[in-house]
Amino acid sequence: MRAADVLRELGRPIAYYPFLSRYLGGVNASVLFCQIFYWQDKATSELGVHKTVEELEEETGLSYEEQRAARAKLRACGVLIETAKRIEHRTYFRIDEDALERLLESPAPERAPRKSPSPRVGKSHLPRWEKSISGDGKSPPHEMDKPELASEEKPMPRDGENHARGNGNSHPVNGTETTAEITSETTAAAAREGPSVDNSAAAAADEQKAGTTPLDAEAQLTDLLIGLEAERGKRLVVDRSRDRLHIVTWVGRAVTHAELREAHKCAVAARDRDDDSRALNVGFVARFVDEVLAARQREAGGASDSGPGNAAAPASDWWLSDSGTGAQGKRVRVDRRPNESTPEYLVRVAKASGRGPWIDHVLKSWQGSTRYQQIIDFLGAELLPSDFYA
């Protein structure tokens, strides 16, 4: 699954993604990225999202100067494409998902160590951040997670006046920072779920009640996978900069311990068939987790549509009809473009839905056409069936 698809699976960024700050150059750049990424799928223009400085300040709390610095960093990383329409007096922002994929595949930049000034002999020097003393005699707290502020330019505002920071307050929640967003969608996270919900998954999740937060559930799934490999005498190494995307996705999709064990069992069987004795990695296991979840959805769809007198296609076969594709598109937040045909729309919806039988259907539908290879490249290797290249 591509990095951009994983972020969609997580839902709207009520909180920004802290791990992105190391790749994008700081917290402000990460906050602006998440806000643009959230609105991108809802944009009506192919150029991307149109937001004024005032709107972004109201939604993120970033001032005009902070927005300019954050945009410069996102452009430098290659993930932000800006299109200025001077006649319309508008600027459009679009996230380059291919550039994002390449960026996250590279190692995370190391943080520069904080340097303590070396005082000269006979003279007393205090670190610069200790110069300001509050009224109670304590040093004010300094932000450790914003290395970009030291080199951030402070250009003059467009009108020559100082712009006060907006009222977009931020609050720490579970170690992340929430950003203000003017929207009334309170059920967006629920809309990210698949076509149907299997009640047995909730019952199977009873063994995970010890983890009441996403961070707890993430740690449990990570430890379980490491333990399963240890039972085989293998050592699984989790790359926090890359593998965490998969594990957080499992948390968002309510993967149970039993389902992860089943996916691990299938992954081991696949390695045995290939006479591969290497330890499994998270990305390889993720392919089989998707297959297990697809099976869960098929079973749930069959159960919900097996009632008497119901001759309609099961909910799990949404990819076989135009109406089903449209309904699934709403679930995964992929809007239909003007005059877009159903087969073309289905390709984008199938990709946003992750691995499943809909991918096989799309590949068979386009096989033999001139765009077949283009469809394969668009879906990406992570979504292709495990035996695609066999």
From TrEMBL:
<feature type="compositionally biased region" description="Basic and acidic residues">
    <location>
        <begin position="127"/>
        <end position="164"/>
    </location>
</feature>
<feature type="region of interest" description="Disordered">
    <location>
        <begin position="104"/>
        <end position="212"/>
    </location>
</feature>
<protein>
    <submittedName>
        <fullName>Uncharacterized protein</fullName>
    </submittedName>
</protein>
<feature type="compositionally biased region" description="Low complexity">
    <location>
        <begin position="176"/>
        <end position="193"/>
    </location>
</feature>
<feature type="region of interest" description="Disordered">
    <location>
        <begin position="299"/>
        <end position="339"/>
    </location>
</feature>
